[in-house]
Amino acid sequence: MEIDVLKMLERRDKWYLGGGNRLLWTPPFPLHLDRPGAWDFVSYFDLRIDPGYTISVVDWGVPVDFVCVDKLWNPATLRSLFRSGDLEMLEEKALLKEDFLVSRVTLKNNSKEAKELDIVVWTAQQCSDSDSEVDTEIIDVADSGIVFKKRLVKPRRRPYPAYVILALEGKESHNVSFSERTGNLPNFRLSPFYEKLGNDGLIERIDTNGINREGLLYIGLYRKVKLAPGNEAIFNCGLGAAPDVEEVVKAARKSLACDPVEESRRNWESYFRSLPQFSIGEPYLQKYYYYRWYGLKLFTSSVNESFMKHPAIAEGLDYFRAFITYSAQCHMLETRWSASPEVAMGSLLNFIENQRDDGSFAGHIYVNQLQENGFYHADWGRAVMELYRIHPDRFFIERIYGPMKKYLGYFDRVRDRENSGLYDVVDQFETGQEYMSRYTVVDPMADRYGWINNIRLKGVDATVYVYNLKKALAWMAGLLGLKEERKLFEESAAKTKKAVLELMWDDHEEIFYDVNPVDFKRTGVKAAVCFYPYMTDIVDESHLPGLKKHLLNPDEFWTEYPVVSTSVDDRLFSQWAEWKGKRHNCPWNGRVWPMTNSHMVDVLGFCARRFDDRLLREKTVELVKKFIKMMYYEGDIERPNCFEHYNPFNGKACVYRGVDDYQHSWVVDLLFRYLAGIDFTENGLTLDPFPFGIDFELDNLTIAGKKLRIRSSKGIFEAEYNGKTINRL
């Protein structure tokens, strides 16, 4: 099975570039894509190096005003073609694994006369005396460029240093000029170099002093290019960043000397080849399978730096480029299918190594700081057990068992003071699902508070996650031979199960509800989290009519593009992302969130298998198909996406947020478990594909150290596990 993934994902409307660890180029609202270079900010973790750099070509003292006439993107390269008269520039940008954003520039002279062109690669970095603002300090002149130290800042965060290099292959001269601020644009005429460029290049001088530190530090590198008629010249340039000078200089030297397009291509192709190879006879599912793997790599960081100790995946771009508990559970479910468990395990280990004294986990792990007051609920128990099925590792279980016991202790001690078996949500943010009636029903001011723990709500989602954790700890204790502890966790899980059935289940309405701990009455707010118990053994067959009555009801949750986060008949429901009359960034009062859909597919799929329900099997298939097709711009097969949330009636994404490739759900995991049919029971691996009616072939997948290959063609299902033929369930 040979699939050219880079070619498959090729398109003309995208610009994100990744492939390194610390550095990333994913500006959400770029203003300068049609200019050579990368002037829109470059991300160093979740901090900004702003601006990046630009490439100016000067012909006899006159800057060449190029026009971008074509662009082509794939995960490895952004190719931009520029023209101005008889001069052509092809720029191929890539972000190399050395954390260097490089431009491979090809200049072609289409005229009948020779040309001698001046090339200036430059940037303009902010300087300031204030510790709370970005500052730039020149460190050294390298053989290929100039190294400068950035003080990167964010509100309420400690400053963080980065060493940055601007580099140009074949550099002949350089200039650094300090200036009062002006329009900071990639316009050569606004820079000091417009006047300081002479016949022999830039004036070789570094000026960084003034009467104060406020201003712009212009850094320029120069070389000359001579072009005979019809000829072309090729050179590399770009910007890199690292925690020390030696590393960033080494990265620049290597990046300038190589063919960066080929290096990036090899990096990405090697990654895609390492994955389970999945050929799917349906174009939307086929492309999205590999598109999701692209997004996971895009935001993967494998560093041992400050608070980030293990490889893991950030939730998204810019300010989402942190390790976040709510999305880490998703990354564990997705990357457990990789050949190595390193990222899946690291997704939990980062939080364990930074565990708070009270046993809880920080909501966000930034490279230079832990979030002090933030917290997110997450289904750690399920994620750990699912990971173990693919990569059984007793040492990992031994490593996490104690910290996860401590984590559960926090919930029992702090989040269930009544000893009810149900667990508190204390602000709207910690569920990851803000702006919903489920919070304002217990406190009308709940949507006004920040991360200040001002409400109390016995949440269905929080309680189900803790229930799964108790079940997982009982299983871990059994695996480790701790019989007494296993018994205690089993009893605790049984207590929570009983409480959910007695206090959260409404016999008349046939739905689970959050509970107000003031009087232990159900809130009556219908949200998608009300179905979370169906992903567990809390429910039995008697609960299925309620699931079908509500989840599959078009007047409640099953909209044209299911599943809405809050029921359509909720008094604060809005399909427009509006909360009380104003469009919000992250509302959960009626939008379709991929995170919700991942849960809902499992709600349907778990119950379909457990209760052998044909309708639920069919609805699982329907939801998977609708879910994935929704994540394409206007249904365009060439343009997959993954935004935070979507309109439930027209399927349009929250493009206004600028946050694409948001890793806040699981998709790969759903395709393996329901399309390919991979399931695990007490007897081990079983194959139970759902009725997609799609031919597929799955190869290069290892489960518990054994190779699994599955093929389904024209209704004939074949599978081979560890060299032996196995049958479907």
UniProtKB/TrEMBL annotation:
Gene3D superfamilies: 1.50.10.10
SUPFAM superfamilies per UniProt: Six-hairpin glycosidases (SSF48208)
Residues that span the membrane, as ranges: none
Residues annotated as domain Mannosylglycerate hydrolase MGH1-like glycoside hydrolase: 330-665
Biological process terms in GO annotation: carbohydrate metabolic process
Protein name: Mannosylglycerate hydrolase MGH1-like glycoside hydrolase domain-containing protein
